[in-house]
Design a protein that fits this description.
Layout (H helix, E strand, L loop, with lengths): L7 H12 L38 H7 L17 E5 L4 H15 L3 E5 L2 H13 L6 E5 L3 H6 L3 E2 L5 H5 L3 H6 L1 E2 L2 E2 L2 E6 L2 E5 L10 H13 L17 H8 L7 E3 L5 E5 L4 H15 L12 H6 L5 E4 L4 H6 L4 E4 L13 E10 L5 H9 L5 H8 L9 H10 L2 H9 L3 E2 L10 H12 L4 H15 L1
Parallel strand pairs: 1-2, 1-3, 13-14
Antiparallel strand pairs: 3-13, 4-13, 5-6, 7-13, 8-11, 8-12, 9-10
Length: about 450
Amino acid sequence: MKRTTLSIAASVGVAALTLTACGGGDSEGGSAKTAPSGEAAEESGADSGKESGEESAEGEKSAAGGGAAATEAPKRDEDADLVIWADELKTGPLKKVTKSFEEEQGVTLQVQTVANEQLRQQYKDATQAGEGPDVVVAPHDWAGEFVQDGVIAPVQLSAETLKSFSPEAAEATKYDGQTYGTPYAVENVALIRNTEMAPDAPKTMEELVETGTSLVKDGTAKNVMALQVGKQGDAYHAYPFLAAYGGSLFEKSSGGGYSDKLTVDSDEMLKGAEKWAWMAQEKAVNTNIDSTNAPSLFAEGKTPYLVSGPWALEQAEKAGIPLEVSPIPEFEDGGKPSPLLGVQMFYVSAQSENGILAQEFVSNFAATDEVQLAMFEAGQRPPAATSAYEKAAKKDKTLQAWKDASEGGDPMPNIPAMNAVWAPLGQATADIVGGKDAEARMKSAAEEIRKAL
């Protein structure tokens, strides 16, 4: 994408706009902790989210609570013309790539690190106190809450720039009809397979379970599959299976996005929950596997399959595990697991001390291949910009597989109501794995969410 600079007239318009505006099993669990940047659920979603997994899982982790002990938010360097906040995974690549922006604009830019688990709240608190950064790097599903709390401003992305992103990424920039950020990466979970233990990609989930079970019985593997659940559940990683029959968390709006009508207990989601219960009965999922050990079980060769995101590859690759990435297979009756899609974004603070410069960075610089490819190094998430994705895919052959696995996936809802979903739905998925009735448990979770809303 060709980089442009805001004209004086456009800059004035942007400045005005800125001012207005997460039962037990009997399978083995590892002990090695991992720090997936995934924001599922990272980081999804949560955030999720995300990765939570992670929180895009970034969104999920933060919304459900927990995380490291709180630390103080960084103090703004008043000598810096532009201050950016990001978590520990992203600040390294950002510091390298922002040098060219400083040189071109003749400004001083400071990138500050905020712990992933604390970024969401500390950003809101600091911004509302007039002490926050000019730009924050965060998952798209935080947008609704950020808008509601008045801590981000709309951004001016041209039609040409929006078209330079994948359709899913472009859609994720929107909230209530406005564009609120520049996307730089799209993430989702998929099936990661040890090709030595399981040479062929399973055609169905039933085939996957049969192969994994056989490997456990002959002593080759300890677990049928590694998919993080934990004692409190993990709604982000369970979602693909819950949504396999057309379900969703909220009713989808005709014009894109979601309404506030909860559909966690729809017939489609209940059917998916029954398949989740079947997976538990077959010991394909259990609550002894969580975010601390799922990737390590795979990296240690204790399971042929892992359901996770791009952030999980590094550990397995360092361990020398031969692997392939593919879509989560369908069920024999046609149910197609459908992952949540998380999008990582750059946002402009509604209280930026240099709104015009912040808009220039987010609207133009962040959309360039230079930035998109630099951020690709932070967790290997596929770039949002098509041209950057194509360049990265020439070197990383897994990118096409992640894209294939995302087909049919739903963007993580970015409405504030999602904050009420993660913990109750996550606990319901854990309870179903523990043996509770799937339909009854999903309905009680939905009731709990509705009361919270």
